[in-house]
From TrEMBL:
The keyword Transferase does not apply. Transmembrane segments: none annotated. Keywords: ATP-binding, Ligase, Nucleotide-binding. InterPro entries: ATP-dep_AA_Ligase, ATP-grasp, ATP_grasp_subdomain_1. SUPFAM superfamilies: Glutathione synthetase ATP-binding domain-like (SSF56059). This is ATP-grasp domain-containing protein. PROSITE patterns: ATP_GRASP (PS50975). GO terms for molecular function: ATP binding; ligase activity; metal ion binding. The keyword Ligase applies. Pfam families: ATP-grasp_4. PANTHER family: ATP-GRASP ENZYME FSQD (PTHR43585:SF2), FUMIPYRROLE BIOSYNTHESIS PROTEIN C (PTHR43585). Residues 118-312 form the ATP-grasp domain.
C-alpha cells in the first residue's frame, strides 16, 4: 500500500512563516522546508518539520526544480507554498511542473508583477493611477505628454517601496533608463498621486474575501523608506467611510485577479486631489513590518496560521471556517535604531501588547477598544521614537526580512 501521509513543501529564502509550519503540523500534515544555506542557523521550528533542506543563494528556477523534484523521489508532496513573496514564481513553476493544485505562473503575476496587477485591476474596472509599461519609447513620450509630472519609476517585482525613483521631467527618465540598460523593461512608469495610504489585509477562501481589516499608514512607506523617519500604522475606525469603502473595494478586487484561497496584503491610496480611492498594489502574502502581529492584536486572527488552515483544509476537502474575530483597534510604531538592542522599557502604557525584537530596530504595538486612544499613543510614541532611537541609512537594494 502506498504512502498516504499528506505533506506540504514550503519554500522561503527569508526567515519567516514559523507559525504556518507549526499550524500545518498541528493539523496532521507534515511540512518540509526548503530554504537557503545562509539561514541554516535561523530560528526554524525544527521540532515540527519532517525535513529541512538548504540550497545555495541565487539558484535558477530550473535548478530549484531539479532540487525539489529530486526531493520528491522519496516522499510525495501534496501542496507547494512560498512563504516569502520573492519565492512565489518559483513555487508556481513547481506547481505547474508537478501538475498540482495552486496558483500557476500567470495568476501569480497578478500578485507579484506591478505592471500585471495594474493592468488586471484597470481591465476589471478599478481606479488605478495612470501608468505605462517601459518598453516602447514613443509610448513613453506620449504618456509624459499627457500625464503631468512627477512620475514614479517602479520595479515591477520588488516588494514595498524598494527601488522606486521619483521622476520630475523627461530628461530624468531618459537618464534613468540609460543607467538601467537591459533591465529597464522590468520597470513601469506611474503618475505620482499624493494622498493617504491604506493597507487591507485579507483572507480569501473559495474565491471570496472572508476576512479583512483596514489600516492607515502614518507617513507613506515610500517616504519612510527613502527619507527616513518613524513608521506607523493603525486600524481605521470601523464606523468610518474609509473602512466601509476600502472593505468593499478590496472585497471585489482581491479575488478579481484570480486568487481562490490564501492571504493578501493590498495597498490603496485616497488621493488628496479628488478624494477617490486608487489601487496601488496587492501581494499574495502576509504583510511585513510586523503587520501580522498588528492584525492579530486588533482582531485575534493570526494570518500565518489561518493561511495554513486554509491550505490544509483544502487538502483534506473540508470547508474553511474563520474563527471568531475581535473588533479592537491596534497600532504599531517602528523605526531603525542607533543601538543594536534598543530598550523600550520606558514605555509603560497598559495598551502595549507587543515589543518588537529585531536587530537595530525599536518597535511597539498597542491595542485598545477605542480608535482615538490608539491614535493618541501613536502620535506621542512617534515623536519620542524620533528623539530617542531614530537612525538613518540609505534604503536597501533588497528586503532584509
Amino acid at each position: 500500500m502506498g504512502d498516504t501521509t499528506q505533506r506540504i513543501l514550503c519554500i522561503s529564502t527569508y526567515e519567516k512563516g514559523q507559525d504556518f509550519l507549526r499550524q500545518c503540523a498541528e493539523m496532521g500534515v507534515r511540512p518540509t522546508l526548503l530554504t537557503v544555506e545562509k539561514l541554516r542557523s535561523a530560528d526554524w521550528p525544527r521540532d515540527v518539520l519532517e525535513d529541512i533542506a538548504f540550497m545555495p543563494d541565487n539558484l535558477t528556477t530550473e535548478q530549484v526544480l531539479n532540487t525539489v523534484s529530486w526531493m520528491a523521489r522519496g516522499r510525495r508532496f501534496d501542496r507547494v507554498v512560498a512563504l516569502d513573496e520573492f519565492d512565489q514564481e518559483t513555487a508556481a513553476a513547481v506547481r505547474e511542473h508537478w501538475c498540482i493544485r495552486g496558483m500557476g505562473l500567470t495568476t501569480t503575476a497578478f500578485y507579484r508583477d506591478k505592471l500585471a496587477m495594474r493592468t488586471g485591476a484597470r481591465e476589471a474596472g478599478f481606479n488605478v493611477p495612470d501608468f505605462t509599461r517601459v518598453l516602447n519609447y514613443d509610448e513613453l513620450r506620449d504618456y509624459m505628454a499627457q500625464v503631468p509630472a512627477p512620475w514614479l519609476l517602479k520595479p515591477r517585482t520588488s516588494a514595498s517601496a524598494l527601488g522606486i525613483r521619483k521622476i520630475h521631467q523627461p530628461e530624468d527618465l531618459w537618464r534613468a533608463l540609460e543607467e538601467l540598460g537591459d533591465r529597464q523593461t522590468h520597470f513601469l512608469l506611474e503618475r505620482f498621486v499624493p494622498g493617504d495610504i491604506y493597507h487591507v489585509d485579507s483572507i480569501i477562501s473559495g474565491g471570496k474575501v472572508v476576512f479583512s481589516v483596514v489600516h492607515k499608514y502614518g507617513k507613506p512607506p515610500m517616504q519612510v523608506m527613502h527619507e527616513g523617519g518613524v513608521f506607523t500604522t493603525r486600524t481605521v475606525d470601523r464606523d468610518s467611510n474609509d473602512w466601509k469603502e476600502l472593505t468593499k473595494f478590496n472585497a471585489s478586487l482581491a479575488p478579481a485577479l484570480g486568487m481562490t484561497r490564501g492571504v493578501t496584503h493590498a495597498e490603496y491610496i485616497r488621493a488628496h486631489a479628488d478624494d477617490r480611492l486608487y489601487f496601488l498594489e496587492i501581494a499574495a502574502r502576509v504583510g511585513g513590518a510586523f503587520i501580522v502581529d498588528l492584525v492579530e492584536a486588533a482582531t485575534g486572527i493570526n494570518l500565518w496560521r489561518e493561511w495554513a488552515r486554509i491550505e490544509v483544509m483544502d487538502l483534506l476537502g473540508v470547508p474553511y471556517e474563520l474563527p471568531q474575530a475581535r473588533a479592537d483597534y491596534a497600532g504599531s510604531v517602528l523605526c531603525l535604531a542607533q543601538t543594536a538592542e534598543p530598550d523600550t522599557s520606558a514605555f509603560t502604557a497598559p495598551e502595549i501588547v507587543f515589543r518588537m525584537k529585531k536587530h537595530h530596530h525599536a518597535g511597539l504595538i498597542v491595542r485598545s477598544p477605542q480608535s482615538e486612544r490608539v491614535r493618541e499613543l501613536l502620535d506621542d510614541y512617534a515623536q519620542q521614537f524620533a528623539s530617542r532611537y531614530l537612525a538613518s541609512m540609505p534604503p536597501p537594494e533588497k528586503p532584509t526580512a
